[in-house]
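Reading a protein record of the kind used here takes only a little practice. These numbers are not coordinates but entries in a learned vocabulary of local backbone shapes. Here is one such record, which you should read through line by line.
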Amino acid sequence: MNTTSHIAVFASGTGTTLQTLIDEQLQHGYHVALVVANRDCSALARAQNAHIPTLLSKDWTEIDQTLTQHDIQLVVLAGFLAIIPEWICHKWEERIINIHPSLLPKHGGKGMYGIRVQEAVLEAGDTTAGCTVHYVSAEVDGGSIIAQTTVPVLPNDTPDTLSQRVQQAEKLLLPRTIATILHNITQH
């Protein structure tokens, strides 16, 4: 009997986080069963190279139906630059997560993604940066925090150097957090 939980990864860009999730799936006991993109992007090619089914769509009814067809237990947003509709947030409550490159609630919300986040961290004079895995709610970056990890802000940091360290932390935190959430889901 196969008890590996199926996840869907939503992406809009290069798919570097998706690649980490693909590379770590056996070690952490989940299976990337579907990749959804809202625009043509490199993440779709990564999925196809790994023989993972893909869906390119902005139609949320179609997306919802496809998640059900693939027996998805958890949706992971990985650089997905679209707002999830409220009805999807409610239907998939506590089964959609996102990773954000800051220590939420700091430096989150609309427009805070990519390098902008680390620019804000440096501008604020923060001595610690990091990343947060949180549940997705109707409020952008407003869902309950599941896990966080920190990285130091170094005196000579640029947004790029800080971003690279945060991305390394994300690669460790996200697969472990997915495994923990799926373990909790399957125990209920």
Remarks:
- The mean pLDDT is 95.
- Strands lie at 5-11, 30-37, 54-56, 74-77, 96-100, 128-135, 145-152.
